[in-house]
Write the structure tokens for this entry.
Amino acid sequence: MRWLLILALWVWALGWAEAQEPTIQPGDKIRITVEGDESLSRVYEVDSRGEILMPLIGTLKASGKTPSALAEEIRQRLIEGRFYRDPKVQVEMVQPARPVVTVAGAVRRAGELELKPGWRVNDALEAASPTNVADLTAVRLERADGTKLTLNILRYRQSGEESENPLLQAGDRIFVPLMPSDRNIIVLGAVNRPGTYDFAEAKTLLQAISLAGGTQTEADLTQVSIKRAGLAEPIIVNLRTLAGDVELQAGDQILVPFRRVRQFIVVRGGVRQPGIINYTEGMTLTQALDAAGGPTDRAILEKIVISRPVAGGRMQRITVNLLEVAQGSRPDEPLQGGDTVEVPVIRERRSSPEEPLRVVWLLLSIIYLVTRR
């Protein structure tokens, strides 16, 4: 009877020792020793897929196995390949890996995350920060042992369904797919956070603009457009006069345009109010001079110079004889935003008795040209 007790204790001790043997995980460093073969005997690092690459054998799944189980598998592979008849193989842990999980796909911080005690899939996703177009209804989880799961994290967040949010294990890989295009909307233009958003959270125009961070100060709220599949022309909405809201459809593209940038013209020299004036579409030289208070009696109106920036950082110069414009022998000169108008002046005032009459005549001509438009 004593030998039965000893046998039972021996079997229990073997089982306890095996239970205490660590399980290999991705990132672990293990030393494999094949007696008499230095080419195989070395330290191997288990990759993120839980595999190692050995000479003669090739790729071998290591994660999820104990060192003794892996040693036996290596031994059998060497025998089956007829490299050895009865090799002696030993596997031991050298450096356990820092437990990590990997998150990829539609997240802002993709890559490895240190696995913290008690972490579940949703914890890793919160750390990785899913984007606005992440499809949280079809998150894929791949275990280190090859098990694959598809999880509805959105359902977990809405109802607390724990089966959709399992505990993580070292070496797990999480992939967050993009939301199908027919389930999102796009907001572009003069908003603070342009991008793609979940249609479920933005079913109206104002909700979508709010999700995009609101409009910028330069936004033209009178010409907001909605591009929709099946419509030849976009829907134009004036937010300033909008009484309610506009229902959206999945796939809509919203554009909040920028207001046209205000442009200016500089008028210098022989005018009564030199400085910067607002440019309006179609403005001409005589209109700009009128906006600057008109020419002084010392202005040389035959040699007005318009400086205009052009491509390549160069400056184009146009000389205009305003007398010809006043006489109708040449058209009034159109201006562009950014032009500088230089009206030269007489250094020493002329004493000719006709000079005041000339200036008066030119002023009357300019007034006529401006008022007839």
In short: Residues 1-19 have pLDDT under 50 and may be disordered.
